Amino acid sequence: IPTTGLRFFTVYGPFGRPDMAYFKFADLIRKNKPIKIYNNGDMLRDFTYIDDIVMGIEHILSAPPRADENGVQYKIYNIGNSSPVRLLDFITTLEHVLGKKAEKEYLPMQPCDVYQTYADVSELERNFDFRPKTSIEDGLEQFAAWYRDYYGMRQV
User: Fold this and answer.
1) Residue 79: beta bridge partners?
2) Crossing angle of helices 136-150/21-30, nearest 10°?
3) Does the global pTM surpass 0.85?
């Protein structure tokens, strides 16, 4: 059975998961509550806009993996922006697109957390001539527009 595994890196966007940092941060900013920022914001995440994930999947669906030298048909692809963003820069961008500053509570690094996530998308690019392209600014702007509309707000 041809099998393809996909690894997504910090997916965000409209109708996203409320338990993800960007969504939690937006809720806390809207409610004038402080956001907890671990490692003083010195962490890097490879944020990937949902439309880029969907486009990546569409490319991959069209080509099931071919058998390797042992006859096994499998492939694993990372889908991520391949350009980690510093957490404080992410928060500054979110504040900008929401039009409101966040109250911040700086905390030390959490046990078991990782400093950086980074997607190596070289195989995705080589096999499908595709790599995610949505910038954090454009993606968060689209999220903020949806967020304000969904929650019936003119400005957060």
Assistant:
1) 8
2) 50
3) yes
Please report, in tens digits, the pLDDT of each residue of the chain (156 residues total). Answer: 899 999 999 999 999 999 999 999 999 999 999 999 999 999 999 999 999 999 999 999 989 999 999 999 999 999 999 999 999 999 999 999 999 999 999 999 999 899 999 999 999 999 999 999 999 999 999 999 999 999 877 654
Beta strands in 10-145 (DSSP E): 11-12, 35-38, 44-45, 48-49, 74-79, 85-86, 104-107
Helix (H) or strand (E) holding 8: strand 3-8
Q: Is 68 helix (H, G, I), strand (E, B) or coil?
A: coil
Among residues 114, 118, 138, 116, which one has the least CA distance to residue 14? 138
The CA angle 81-83-84, to the nearest 5 degrees, is: 110
Asked whether 102 and 35 are in contact (CB, 8 A), the reply is yes
Which residue blocks in the chain are alpha helix, DSSP H? 21-30, 50-61, 87-98, 122-128, 136-150
Which residue type is seen at 38? Y
Alpha-carbon gap, residue 36 to 34, rounded angstroms: 6
